[in-house]
Amino acid sequence: MSDNNKNTSQICVIIGASHAGVNAAFALRKEGWKGEIILYDADPTLPYHRPPLSKAYLTSNDDIEQNAIKSAQSYIKDNITLQLGHQVTSITPSESCVVLKNGAQQHYDKLIIATGARPFIPPIQGLQTAKHVYPLRTAADVTHIKSAFAEQDQKRVVVIGGGYIGLETAASIKKLGGDVTVLEREERILARVTAPVMSDFFQSLHANNGVDVFTSKDVTSIKPENTHNKVICADGTEYEADIIIVGVGIRVNLELAEAAGLHIDNGIRVDHCTQTSMDNIYAIGDCSNHYNPHYDRYIRLESVQNAVDQAKTAAAAICGKSPVYNTIPWFWSDQYDVKLQMVGLSTGYNQIIVRHETDATKFSVWYFQDETLLSVDAINNAKAYVIGTKFIKDNTKVDKTKLLDSDIELKADNLKLDNS
Ligand SMILES: Cc1cc2nc3c(=O)[nH]c(=O)nc-3n(C[C@H](O)[C@H](O)[C@H](O)COP(=O)(O)OP(=O)(O)OC[C@H]3O[C@@H](n4cnc5c(N)ncnc54)[C@H](O)[C@@H]3O)c2cc1C
Question: Which of 152, 213, 241, 385 could form a disulfide with 182 if both were Cys (CB 3.0 to 4.6 A apart)?
Fold first, then answer.
């Protein structure tokens, strides 16, 4: 065990108490950190899971506490000081301290930056001043959306952005009884992250559930009417909206790290054990850009898996171990009764194989770069996801002919190339 673990006078400060920060705090205790742990977050709410915000939580009457990452008692039990409603305004590495908005200073021996991201609000004329316009990133955003929805007589909801968050939100609001339209600027939804076959699948899924999804719609302005807004697109089309939800991506919270002089490059650049360009400062989760040995390049991910796994890596490194962060990214999305599970990164693919099963509700899309399997998107098909994960991790060569044949059972042994 390293000195860090034994030393009760050392302080680890964590900025950001969400998936990355909270998991880092508890992982530090598991690794044997004996010193103080102080976790700051500007959000006053007990840290909660974000994925349900656009899914089950949006349609339920649950309290946010039912959605907490850890109970309030867990922090007390593990002697973690949770400072909610406290924004950190600067980091001074030369003095090993952070400064809070209220002027207070806090010394650290180790610092973990887990500041994540905030919604990007695009420069659409009239958007900033229009009524009933909401992003969806925090529990407070969901509260605002729900109360605006309850107040409106007509419930015409326009979602700007056809990415996962926009589409999940559209499905949830439809379930609540809204009249939902999604406007996507690209020629197809999910264009950045999936193959056209998946975009088509989700487009039809929404149409079949009564949600209008329009693509090639560049929203240029919002015009307030008496009781609602008009959403106006570059092609001259207009959509009436009682509520507008903006889901066009995020901006990484990098300002603190940048001002502190850390190396920034599409996120806070970190090494194999999540350490930044400065000693004793680590960065994890959505705000960090790490080297992924499997894909042999730097990547910045926006996923719970990455936040949790990097948290464990940072804790191990801080406690004197020599971890190497090397995981295959995975992600999921729930829309209506469809569960999508994705593993790997499809960037650079030059072939896809779509495998159908005898059960027509299940299929999977396998992305290859020549003979290398890069990623798998599995629709209602946990088996495909599990096999895909194993194959990607082990660099297993896949027999593509067998993969295509739905009469051949989906089993790892059936799909390996004989010589792999
Ligand atoms: C609606 C929604 C649905 C999602 N669905 C999925 C999904 O299905 N699957 C999946 O894998 N991922 C999903 N994600 C993404 C996932 O939630 C994020 O990848 C994850 O939250 C990243 O965790 P993080 O701790 O790095 O950052 P964040 O969750 O962004 O947390 C950062 C925290 O830092 C705090 N903070 C920032 N700056 C300061 C400061 N200066 N002082 C104090 N506090 C500060 C913020 O208040 C925030 O609480 C979803 C996200 C959203 C919004």
Answer: 213
Residue 125 lies in a domain: no
Note the Cα 28 to chain centre separation in Å. 23
Whether residue 95 is found in the same domain as residue 201:
no
End-to-end CA distance of the chain: 41
pLDDT at position 6 is 67
Paired tokens of 34: 């004996």
Residue 3, pLDDT > 80, answer: no
Whether this prediction's pTM lies above 0.70 is answered by: yes
Ligand 1 pocket (Cβ < 6 Å) reads 15-21, 40-43, 50-51, 53-54, 87-88, 114-117, 136-137, 165, 253, 256, 285-286, 302-305, 307, 331-333
Contact assessment for residue 366 and residue 404, using Cβ atoms and an 8 Å cutoff: no
Ligand 1 atom index nearest CA of 136 = 1
Domain coverage including residue 381: 337-415
In this predicted structure, what is the pLDDT of residue 418? Answer: 77
Is the pLDDT at 4 greater than 70? The verdict is: no
